[in-house]
Each structure stands twice: as structure tokens, then as C-alpha cells.
Amino acid sequence: MASVQIHNDDIQLESPVFVEGLPGAGLVGKIAADHLIETFDMDYYAAFHCEGLPQAAVYEAEKSVVRPPVRLYADSDRDIVVLQSDVPVSPTQASEFAGCVTGWIQSTDALPLYLSGLAEEKEGVPELYGVATGDAEPVLDDAGIVPPRGGGMVTGPTGALLHRAAEEAIDAVGLIVQTNPQFPDPEAARVILEHGVEPIAGIDVETDELVDRADEIQQAREQLAKRVQEAANEESTAAQPIRGFQ
């Protein structure tokens, strides 16, 4: 049965900003989420036990504790919650997973930020676009985030989350950044943090390290990127243009 298991009852949240960090195109969501958790030394808060998630045990170097592969970390001072995932979500189970996550979002009155990479040729700094569901368009306007230049769709689990938010008229924001879909893209993650997460959540995130450690991050994430590609192929989380339907 789908559930969210709270592991730290001492953490108090009040209508938090929820940042989704599922692995997808360019691993922009994964890299951004990991960076937030590490930078703010966020506390392990809860675990998702949803349909579509593998029953795997995750452990860290030099630590004997094991944890589920999809977890929530929280910072009560900044009122932000981050979803960290070490596994891709099965595309065939994306709907069930989206229902599980959306149920928790509704119960906490969180504002979800869904992150996705757009496989589009970049010239200089990657461009960031935003889409919204419910009554969240003013959130984008206030942050100065523009809509995509062309039509498209967000696929995979992140697309399922946005679909569920639209279906239930939940306020949610989709942040879409240009990225290299074949390799981990720390630069795209930096853009999504600086120009998307920061102004919406009202936080300051040091991101210089993302660029300085780009080679190290790329090597560390390439194996995960390969697993995502092998597991889901074109159905993995990504934003993509729609050709010929405009």
C-alpha cells in the first residue's frame, strides 16, 4: 500500500516549498536536489513507499544505516522539503507514484516545484522556462520566469506529477531548463537553482561549487544516467518539444 513514513516527528513544516529531484534528462533534478540537501545539511524527514518504486536498500560510504531509495529531507527554518531519489521510477507505474506523492503534497499544503531538463541546443547559459497548474502562474511571474518558446510536453514520472496536479487543480510549478540529455548537466542544475528554486522558495543557495566540481559530478552521476536511459528509454522524465502540432 502506498504510504509516506515519517522518520523525524520533531520537524515542523508550514506550507513548505517542495522540490522534486527525480533522475531524468541531464539529471538536472537529481543534481539540484542533492546539492540543496548537502548545502543546507538538511535532515532526513520521511520515506516514500509507493507503487513503482523498487524495494532497494540504500547505504552511504562508511555508514551502516540503510534507507529507502526515495526519501524526503527537510529544513524547517527555510520551510523547504526536497525529494531525493537514487532510482528511476518505472514509467509504467508513474501514475500510481504521482498519486502517492500528490497525496502527501495535499496533506501538507506544499507548493511543489517539479524539475525537468529540455533536450534543446544551448547557446551560452541554459535558458529556464516555467509552466504552472492551478493558480500558480503568479508564482512564475513574481520570479521572472518566462513560459517555453514552443509547445512541448513533460514525460515520465515528473510529467505524471504535473498531470496529476493539473487534474486536481493543485497549485504547482514546472521548471524546465535546457540541458544535454545524454550526460549529467551541473550547469543546467545551477540555472534551475539560481533562477527557479531560489526566487520561488525565498532562499539563497551557493552554486559555484556545482560548476567547479562539474567533472567530478559528471563522473559520479554518469552511471545513474545510464541506468535511467536503460530503464526507461524515451519514457524517462524529460521535457520535449512537439513538432508539427502547433
Keywords:
single chain; about 250 residues; Rossmann fold; eight-stranded mixed beta sheet; 7 helices; about 35% helix; PSMG2_sf; PAC2 family protein
Write structural notes for this entry.
This is PAC2 family protein. Pfam families: PAC2. It comes from Natronomonas pharaonis (strain ATCC 35678 / DSM 2160 / CIP 103997 / JCM 8858 / NBRC 14720 / NCIMB 2260 / Gabara). Residues 225-246 are annotated as: Disordered. The structure is a single chain. The chain contains 7 helices and 12 strands. It is of the alpha/beta class and 246 residues long. It has one domain (14-241): 3-Layer(aba) Sandwich (Rossmann fold). The longest helix has 19 residues, at 214-232. The N and C termini lie far apart (41 Å). Residues 242-246 have low confidence and may be disordered.
Helical percent range?
A: 25-40%
CATH topology: Rossmann fold
Given the C-alpha coordinates, what overall shape results?
Answer: globular
CATH superfamily: PAC-like subunit
Low-confidence stretches: 242-246
Count of runs of 4 or more consecutive helical residues: 7
- Oligomer type: single chain
Q: What kind of sheet is the major sheet?
A: 8 strands, mixed
The CATH first-level class comes to Alpha Beta
What is Rg? 16 Å
Kindly give the count of domains.
1
Going by CATH, the architecture would be: 3-Layer(aba) Sandwich
Mean pLDDT: 86
Strand order of the largest sheet: 1-3-6-7-2-8-11-9
Run of helices and strands: EEHEEEEEHEEHEHEHHHE
- Ends: how far apart? 41 Å
Classification by helices and strands: alpha/beta
Annotation, overall tally of beta strands: 12
Strand content: 25-35%
